[in-house]
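INFO  loader      accepted 1 record
INFO  loader      residues=178
INFO  predictor   begin
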Amino acid sequence: MQYELIFQQPLLAKNVQQLSLDEQVGVLCAYVLRQVERVAGFDACYGATLEDLFVQGVRACVHASRPELEQRLVDVERHIPDTDDYSDESAAYALNALISLLYLIRYRLEGGEDEKRGATDMTLCNVDLVHYSLDEQYDEAVVIAAEAAVISALASRLPELGEDRLAWVMRQAHEHRL
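INFO  predictor   done
INFO  writer      dumping tokens
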């Protein structure tokens, strides 16, 4: 699965492009945070504490200053599980989730399309893993349509003026969890 397959859908692409950078970051924060339970699964298997790092990294993208974001980037890079040391499915989920978080933080810092694409693609890697683990013959087109619907729903439910953006991100990620 790839970013382009989702964002080639004209209506979705148009709707997302009309959002401000802050709004796009909010949508991407909620989309990336959907993976939190997959990170928690790695923690449960290995006694790690990546879930807190993951959540705090997403929170930083909503509220933190540039120096705080730069420090989060270093912290996340330092804690990405090495698949040579951890070869099970939970490690793959955690690896993909933390790499998607790296791209998200870079997107917040730089606002580049490559960073947005990276955060989305790495999240989609976990979407693919989830569906493949349930059914090796799953219909990718159906899953792509569902993921496009998730992004569309997030983009159309941006927080009302005055609503706490972090609370919105957390609520949306929970509602659309992976």
